Structure formats: C-alpha cells, structure tokens
Amino acid sequence: MTTPQRISDLQLAERPRERLAEHGPDALRNGELLAILLRTGIRGASAVAVADTLLQRFGSLEALARAPFDDLRTKGIGRDKAAALKAAFTLARRLAGELRRESPVLDHPEAVAVLLRDDAMAASVERLQVVLVNTRRRLIRIDLVAEGLLDQLLVHAREVFRPAISANAHALILAHNHPSGDPTPSEADIRVTRDLIRAGQLLKIEVLDHLIIGRRTESRPRDYCSLRELGYWAGH
Known about the structure:
Radius of gyration: 22 Å
Strand content: 5-15%
CATH superfamily of the largest domain: Cytidine Deaminase, domain 2
Number of strands: 5
Order of helices and strands: HHHHHHHEEHEHEE
Number of domains: 2
Distance between the termini: 67 Å
CATH topology of the largest domain: Cytidine Deaminase, domain 2
CATH architecture of the largest domain: 3-Layer(aba) Sandwich
C-alpha cells in the first residue's frame, strides 16, 4: 500500500483541516498542525510529509520555533511558507507572554522562569533582561538591556537600573538565557551579578535574584538556575 502523496488523496476524515474542524486541534499531531500552515506539499510528498520531515530535521517544536528564518527555507518550504511558520510561532509566543504578564507575583525563581521561558527559548543569542517589581513583588514590566555574550559585553549599571528608576520600581530581578541550553552560570555571569548587586545597594534598588534560563533535557529536568539559590548573594 502506497502512502498518499497529496492531502486530497486522503479520506476526508483523515485530512488535517477536516479533522481539526471535527475533533479540535488537540486531536492532531504536530506534523498535521504544521501541514495546515504549509497548505501544500511538493511533487511526491504531501504537506503532512513535508511537515514531518521538517520536524525530524529540527528534532522538536522548540528548536523549530527558535530557528532563524533562512533555516526554515528548505525543500518544499519557500519564503511564503517560512514566513507563515515564523509568524505562527511568534504569535504563539506573544500570546503566551500576554497570558502570563497580568501582574504576576514573582516571589520564587520558578515564577520568573515561567514568565520568561518562551522568550528565552526563542532567542539565538544571550539577552540580559531586567524584571521590575513593586514592593509586593508584582511585575511592573520587563526591559531588555543587553544582547550578546555577557563576557563580551560591557554591562553598565546605568543601563540596568535606568528602567527601574523610570518605573519607580522597588526592586529588580536579572535574567538572561543560555542558548546552549545549559543554565550553569559562567564566571562572567557571577562577576556581573556581584557588580550589579553592589550598584543596586548604592542606588537603593534591591537586586533580588539573577536567573539563567536554558532548556530541559532528560538528565536536566530543571531548565534554569537561580544565582541566589546557589549562594552568590551571601557576601556577594
């Protein structure tokens, strides 16, 4: 029995769009959902087959969502289809951010990780952010203050604390991602953290924590580390 080369060759009840309309999106595999975005396949391969190949190539939805635009352009996926995929993943990330950013209480590292995880996973370079909170540790806003490797950047205290001063924030939480996926702090991470803790003390704006966000693996179920939990606040 040969595999159908076109979605139109499938039985009506097996076509992704029809199945979604009948049973809802949760009934579809990732490849089938992607196929709806791709709309068409290529000669010899349906949109579902092209989508499955794309998932196999990147290994996971997370890696696919983080992929640069040009890397999405491959056999069966031109500029327009790559743009549709990039737009869908970006909208999903923004929606998730909106749902989480309704002034949550950030009184634990996990709460901060939940807030920033999607943006961190989507970034291909290190991005240092400041999470501004009020006296009750409720979120005021999040500001991006630097991009690139921290050991190759001059992270100026004035850039870190300027958003906190303008927002009249009581305190802030530092956060950045490790695109490698390993959230273990580097010497540069520790040095920058200690410098900013001291600067915050002079400015009367407390630095509550510094989170590094990576990715989960089977051997590493926790995808972030808290430098405060690791003891770097004691004696700075």
